Amino acid sequence: MKKRLLTLILGSVLALGVFTGCSSNTTETNSTSALSESSEEEKTELTCVNYRDIRDLNPHLYAGEMYAQSILYDTLVSITDDGYEGCLAESWNISDDGKVYTFKIREGVTFSDGEVCDANAILANFNAIIENKERHTWLEMMNLLVGVSAPDDYTFVIELSEPYYPMLTELGCIRPFAMISPNCMIEGSTKDGVNGYIGTGPYVLTDFVTDEYAVFERNENYWGELTAIEKITVKVIPDNQTRIMALESGEIDLIFGKNMLDADAISQYIDSEKFTVSLSEPTSTRHIVLNTKNDILSDVAVRQALQHATNKEAISEGIFYGLEEPADTLYAKTVPYCDVDLTPYEYNFETAEKMLDEAGWVMGSDGIRQKDGKKLELGLLYNSDSVTEKTISEYLQSEYLKLGISLNIHGEEEQSYRDNMKAGNFDMVFNICWGMPYDPQSSLSAMTAPVYGDYAAQLGLEDKAEIDAAITKVLTTTDETERQELYTFILTRLHEDAVYIPLTFECNKALYTSDLQGVHFGTDQYDVPFADMYFQ
Prior knowledge:
Helix content: 25-40%
Oligomer: single chain
Strand content: 15-25%
Largest sheet: 6 strands, mixed
CATH topology of the largest domain: Dipeptide-binding Protein, domain 3
CATH class of the largest domain: Alpha Beta
CATH architecture of the largest domain: Roll
Radius of gyration: 25 Å
C-alpha cells in the first residue's frame, strides 16, 4: 500500500500543471466559436484557506502569518533553489575578511504608499530591528553586528565583528529583515507595533475581518513582474474537514501547508482528476525533546531506552499512511552539513527493557517500574491545537506502559504550550526542527539561548558548554572543512546524548483544484508562492 501510495503521489507531483479544463467543442473554428473563446475571461481571483487569522503582520516581529508577510514585504536578497538572488538589493559585495557586506539598492522601488524604498528606508528598518535586539537572539548575527549605514541613497552597509557564513540566508528569510514603509513605524520604532502593513511586495492588504478572512490585491506599482493572480482571498476555517468540504463545493481553490491537511485527506484525492495533490521533499523533523534537568531523564540510559522503545515505523504507517517517513536523526541527511554517519536507535523493546533494568528501574507489582521508591512517571506536553500530536501522544502512552513507564499526556493551547516549552516546564515535549532555510544553522544557534525548549532541555548535559561553543564557532568559521567537522561533532554529541527522539520527517502539502497551475514549494516551508500561480 505504501509503495503504491507514494508512486501515485509522485505521479501527481510530476503531473503538476497537466490537468486543464476540457472543451466540448474542439472542431468548430467558425467566427462565433472564436468570438466565444476570446470573450471568456481568464480567472484572476484565487480563494484559499488558513486555519487562523493573519494576526499582527509587523515584519520585524513573529506573531503574524508568514505567508502574508512574504507577499506584502521584500527582503534585501531572495533565497532560491540555485542560491541567492537580488531582491531590494540589486547586487552586493562581501569584503575579503567576510566582515563587511555592501549592498547596491535597487532604484525605482517604492512602498505601496508611495514612499521611496532607498538605502535610507532600509537603514530605518534595520535601526528599528536593532532597537529590539533582545527579541532576535536566535540570530547570531545580532551578536556580531558592529553597525549599519547608508553612505548614499542607494548603498547600504552591514559591518560585523566576525565573518558569519549564514548572513545572506538570514537576510533572505521572511522575517525579521523584511522592509516596511517608514511611515508605518511609530516614532521610528516597530518593537511596540506599527500603524500599517505597507511593503514593497507583489500584493497589498486591502481588507480583513478578524477570524473570518483577509483580502490581498495585486500591487500595481510592484517593481518586479506583475502576478497573474490579481486578488487573493484567504478564508479562516479552523476545522480540517470543513476545509475539505469548502474545496469540494468550490468555495475555495487551494489548501496549502503542512498543518492544513492530514494524511486521511491526502489519501482520498491521490486518484482525483478534479483535484491535484502535491507533496514536498522533507521540510523538517517532527520530534520529542527530553528535559535532561528532570531527575529521571538526567540519566542518559533512560533517554536511550526511550529511543529504542519508540516505534517510528508504526507512527509513520499508522498515523501518516507512510506520507511522513520515519526519522532516525534530528535533521534529514538532505539538510546542508547533516549527512553525518550516525548509528540509529533501532526500535527494540528488549534492548529498552535491558537498559532500564541495568539503570536500576525494576518492574513494580502495579506494572510501573520503580527505583529507590520512585515510580518511572513522565509527562508529555503537546499542542492541543494539533490532532496529530494528541494521536501520537496516546499511542506512546500505550506503548511505554508495556515497558513499565507511566506517561501522563497533557495538551495546552499553542501559546501556553510554547511558553512552557521555552521556560523548561516539561519532562517531554513535542517540537519540530525549523526547516529550510533555517536548518541547521539558525535552529542550532537557538539552542545556545532560551529561545525555545532546546536550551532548557540541554542544561543537564555535561557537555552542554562544549556543544554551545562548537555551535558558536561553526557560524563564524570560514574554513569549509572545519565547518563540516564542527557540525559533525555537534550532531554526534546531540545524537549520543539522546536529547531528541526523532519521529518522522514532515513534508509540505497542497491540495487544489486542477485548473490552478504553478503550485510548488519554495525554499522556505512557510512561504506560499502565490506570485507563480495562475488559472488555466
